[in-house]
Amino acid sequence: MKTSPPFWQNLSYKTFLGTAFGLCLSLYSHAQEPTKPVDTPLATPTVTEYPGILQTFEALIQVDNTKFKNIQEHLIKNGKVLSDSKKVSDLELEPDFLNSIILHSDAGYIRLASTSKCSFYDTIMTDLLRSAEGKLKNVMVTYVTKTGSRESALLSKKEFLGNVVTQECPESVALIAQFQVKTLEQTLNSTLFEVPNNRDQCRITHLSWLNNPKTPYLCQIHEFLKEAKAGGGEAKDLMQRQTMAKIIDGKLNLIQKDYIENVCTNLDHEEMFCNEFLNVSFWSKIAGGQADKIYADSICQKAMGSGSISGPQLKQCLARLKKENDLCMYGAGRDQSLSPHLDCDSLSLALNHSSLRSNYRDCPGSSDQLAATNFTRVLLNITQAEIKPVAGPCSAVSIGETVMFNDRFDNDEGWTMEACFFDKIKEREICSKTFFGNYGDHPIAYTNIVAGILRETRGADKSVTCKMIASDEYNPLLLQYKTGCQIIYDRDKCFASQCKHRILYNDSDIDFIKIKNRVNIEYFPLTIKGERFTLQYLLTRDFKQVAKSYNNLTSVTRHFRTGKKGILYGIGCAEDLLPTFFKVHSMNQCSPIPFIVDGMIQDEDSLAFVTRTAADSLQAPRILSWSNIYSGVRAYQRYHPLKLWTLYALD
Amino acid sequence: MPLISFILFISVAWSQELPKFLTKHSPDTLRYISMDGRTAYVQKKPGVLGFVNSFKSVDFLTETSASDFILTGSPDKIKLAIEVVSNPHTEYNLLKNNKIIVVNWGNTQTKDVGFGRSPKLHLKDEWITYYDAYDKMLHIQNISTQKKFEIKLAAKANPFFIPEVVMVAQDNVTYTDINENGFVALITFNLSTKVSTVIYRSPQSGTKLELCRNDGYVAVGEFPYEGISRGSKIMHIKLSSETNLAGYTTIYNTVDQDLGNMVCHPTAIFFIKTMSQEKKLNTKTTDAVRLDLKTHKIEAKTSEGNITQLIEMDGRVMIAFRGDFYVIEGISNLSSDTLKAVPTSKEELPLDI
Fold first, then answer.
1. H or E element at residue B300
2. At A26, is the pLDDT very low, low, confident or very high (cuts 50, 70, 90)?
């Protein structure tokens, strides 16, 4: 069976022919005057048969091969090799040379080449374009001689780079420097490999890669590695190329490699490029290293019946997730959340369209302040700050971040939860603001507050620190627990405001520290007077985030179609957001629950939104309809003292 | 062996326009209202529950911290259970144990019961059950004698799980629980012998069981949670002098992912049914339907397509839709100024507040 070159798979070449010739003619600023017809050494065949379109294309290629070979031989034989292109004028690319490129190059690279003059040069310099001879060794040009006649000649690629590319596209020279072995790692690290989470974003991402000046150089790496791996190219330097490929390969991580492959193989196939992000199973992405394994950790621990998952076990588990749809509904371990989660297929779909930062755990099942859980998710999505060390309940991440945010904007006065003791010397009760656990060794963390009280009341040394020890890990026989301060807590009953625990100092119980009040947080204003102490006020005024109130589907869909990875956040009644989990028993019953919408999924005429209520695991979003989201926020508006609409978008 | 009668054909009759629920109270403040509208409990302002009876109004419950109130009754209409939710706008906590109070129906004398969530009255309102979500403990309490029982639940798969409970006899509590793999079960606990018996165990994970009781029967509904591809079914258990709940009849069975949220009436069960579904994105149209207990026929009561909850109060079944309440079953217009008969002494506003 005869095969056609890749270019013929896509008939957009017809459009390109015009573009490329136009481009070619406009490439050189000094090619302004009309020139004489090119002296072609090969006559056009007198008879051309058109028995079928496929054969016609093949015939064209054969004609081109012969023509190209003849031109090249003719030029070499007649010594038409330009050693200094500066000495000639009206330099243009040889039309037959261009034809040959169009006929033999990959359609994607031709599309890349056609985006701008410099892209065209870059694709030549990076060996992405091919002619009848394969990789371009020389560039065929025409020029006007001193006598005024137009002649053809060969120009070496080095000469082409030095005298044409350097002059017309100085940025290409800078790019070449960035893609040297020494600089490659730094260049790759500074390149944003953005993962889109909906079709509209993906279209923008694809277009940005087509217009990105780095793309030809990234694709050069892709082609170089592919050829070396396949043992292609010239045999004489294969070993050297393979060694070089190994070095380059080591500088790319799996995610970058897959991403670059997707870009380079789908430059002309936007839909296929997007399918790689949106239609491929999320579990395959984890297996391929393109997504964090945190999303599968809890599921696989449960599926494999093991507390820790090895590499081969993870692969085995991920393969099961694609076949056993129910495995994803319940996780294991201590990261408990509202369950069941979505089944594996739906969860994969949701995660493919999700953009919220989710590479840490915040244990909503052990959070008794879901405003902090939600707010911290929003905050860490903006700041991308590193997660600090956590002690005690893992929901301390959320409380700790919220405390630090309040500190930053002098809003710590409103913190109501306190640890108190009676000071016998001062003869009064002394109270300190606190939260259970520890996060980033914050001064008001319970461990630090207890240590301070022990210094005041038990003459403890300044160096004394308290540790949070889970009751199932505590062994009173061990020497390490005989001295110092330990806070032994019940893992299942320890939350930010309420924690079943006991304090041991030098193996004696400390029982005089009392907890007063709970963590109360005003997310949105409840009174006009108190507005400036709310998280919403601090986020939008002091932290200067632009939040727009959205109350209709058009605004929300437009928000997600802009291509930005913005999120929506708000508060709704749990009974309307998740009616199968929360049942109404009374009129005007509402359990306010904060939530985040971070993606939109469109399937023909249907629309749905990737949503995490604060009770949901960060790694297990849900797919909700606009009707549920709207009803939830609308019901909360009725319930709210100021009748506020509480759905906002952040860019 | 349970009798199973599958419904092969579901007759769906679209209803006429639903009447709006009209009262002289602001719908936003209403927490409970009797069928004739003469007795109502309204939240006058955050933390204050008012009682309105025969044109008299009194603030009868004042709680601190801008509390909200959830009132639930029973078909027996002897008492009402009140859940006092403190700081609902600053303490976003689905596990918080709220103060539970009972009040005689149409009266203002309260009695503190304990702390927990989702209180429910049983057996002529002599018994109350509520759930401690922190300790995963189901509390069963006789309101008159103060006799108390506790059942520790497994509820391992979901920290936010709240059990459904019915009592069919003084010594029998039937409740739902889930194991670590998400399989739900219906368990009967004998308060005298302290013996538990599993009377139904779901063959599939990812579903919830709902219980409701009325006029000589208990209904058990099994419905899938959000986004889980499972069918739905409703089982009917006729109550007799014996307290055995083991024999049930399946009166409704479908592959549709219904929402449930059942309400039991003497002659019918109301619930939220999925009318159509887009499989890939799992978007549904859902409406309130009436399942006739005699004919087992389904009648659609709404056609809006996005109804998700039913509210039951003193036999009236309502839906909330775009900020208004609509009545599916019961009297809808309570705003009439027609003079009514002199209230009985029982309905008079007590003066011993």
1. strand B298-300
2. very low
